[in-house]
Amino acid sequence: MELLGMSPMRTKMTRIVTVLLLVGFILGVRGGEARKGKVTESFAYTGISCRRHTASITDFGGVGDGKTSNTKAFQDAVNHLSKYASDGGAQLYVPAGKWLTGSFSLTSHFTLYLQKHALLLASQDMKEWPVLKPLPSYGRGRDAAGGRFTSLIYGTNLTDVIVTGANGTIDGQGSFWWQKFHKGKLKYTRPYIIEFMYSDTIQISNLTLLNSPSWNVHPVYSSNILIKGIKILAPVKSPNTDGINPDSCTNVRIEDSYIVSGDDCIAVKSGWDEYGISFGMPTKQLVIRRLTCISPYSAAIALGSEMSGGIQDVRAEDITSVHTESGVRIKTARGRGGFVKDIFVRRMSLHTMKWVFWMTGNYKQHADNHYDPNALPVIQGINYRDIVANNVSMAARLEGIEGDPFTQICIANVTIGMAAKAKKVPWTCTDVEGITSGVSPRPCDLLPDQGQKKIAACDFPAEPLSIDRVVLKTCTYRVNHM
């Protein structure tokens, strides 16, 4: 039937236009629905490098429901993005959601970015944790004589890697591992949350790490590392949940971080007994600043006990510690060999401590029975200044090794307020040598007071390390994801 008042040709054209409009409307609705399923988000971070290419974990089948395993999705994403390493690098964006995953490795010239409400959940399926050989500088695992489970996020022989976010969270779900550890049911050493080996130019920043199975952050045999703005939380009785453990590393900067843990907040290491001596790679040129620590059973900063490759030129400043066993602790023993020297600490604020200073040459844990008891460590050039502490049970416990004293100890401008039930003798010292100035309560006789004229002793190095000259770039992006 023709439309009233229209010619057949015009009527036909009108029908065609009407059909086209209807088709366009339907497609528009469908297109709108498709677009509605996509989310465009902008994000930014400061980093050692910016990236040319960006993808979301959802592009690789990632499902953020807290139940679906995303191990394959993460590894597929990294493998795909690795092809951009020589073309400006790439980054993987993890949006809000709960992303269950086992271990996965990263690649060079790469950024892993966790949005504010992104939560990585470590899998409790042990099949998703491959086993590695023991570290060569340790000779064995720390939990068991055999190998060790791969860390949740790890990489080997990498260059220019960033793990960062808008305070996104990684939950190691450690209670699963802690129970197995306490029951003696582990054949291998527990995994860490983040570990990089034999790598250079690494940044780990602006993240919250929860409930690690063991150590949280472990750079090993690596250099030029920046760890900044990290929050680490674990129950204070959880086993070996050290915060940050630079291990046989050079040029490391740790700053602006908050750690509550069941072990040392910062543990500086370089190998264990004969294995560390043979490997011979020290940790040196380490900066620690603006750290807040809570650890009732361990130290704010520990040097050792695995220090057989040597530790040298550590600079710590502006450290706050609350309810922590000790401020700075040096742990070593006969058989360790190696050295701890040129250690500089200043401006510590300590509240409720068992010891402010603790050095021990009698830390008897050994990798095996093959260590050389004549391999004696060298502990010298230990400098502490400008420290205030209150509610302290004992000012210092300094125990060198007979025939191998700890030397060149310098402590200046230190005020320690003793607790109501403090030990009657605030200082105990054996086999140590050094000086003090402006220290209260009065130190032991092995550290004679040089008077107020030496209040400026224990000088902190003025020349910055090369890692302090690293300037971060501002990187800004937009990403579409489901």
Automatic annotation (TrEMBL):
<keyword id="KW-0378">Hydrolase</keyword>
<keyword id="KW-0326">Glycosidase</keyword>
<dbReference type="InterPro" id="IPR024535">
    <property type="entry name" value="RHGA/B-epi-like_pectate_lyase"/>
</dbReference>
<dbReference type="GO" id="GO:0005975">
    <property type="term" value="P:carbohydrate metabolic process"/>
</dbReference>
<dbReference type="GO" id="GO:0004650">
    <property type="term" value="F:polygalacturonase activity"/>
</dbReference>
<protein>
    <recommendedName>
        <fullName>Rhamnogalacturonase A/B/Epimerase-like pectate lyase domain-containing protein</fullName>
    </recommendedName>
</protein>
<dbReference type="InterPro" id="IPR051801">
    <property type="entry name" value="GH28_Enzymes"/>
</dbReference>
<comment type="similarity">
    <text>Belongs to the glycosyl hydrolase 28 family.</text>
</comment>
<dbReference type="Pfam" id="PF00295">
    <property type="entry name" value="Glyco_hydro_28"/>
</dbReference>
<dbReference type="Pfam" id="PF12708">
    <property type="entry name" value="Pect-lyase_RHGA_epim"/>
</dbReference>
<feature type="domain" description="Rhamnogalacturonase A/B/Epimerase-like pectate lyase">
    <location>
        <begin position="56"/>
        <end position="101"/>
    </location>
</feature>
<keyword id="KW-0732">Signal</keyword>
<dbReference type="InterPro" id="IPR000743">
    <property type="entry name" value="Glyco_hydro_28"/>
</dbReference>
<dbReference type="InterPro" id="IPR011050">
    <property type="entry name" value="Pectin_lyase_fold/virulence"/>
</dbReference>
<dbReference type="InterPro" id="IPR012334">
    <property type="entry name" value="Pectin_lyas_fold"/>
</dbReference>
<feature type="signal peptide">
    <location>
        <begin position="1"/>
        <end position="34"/>
    </location>
</feature>
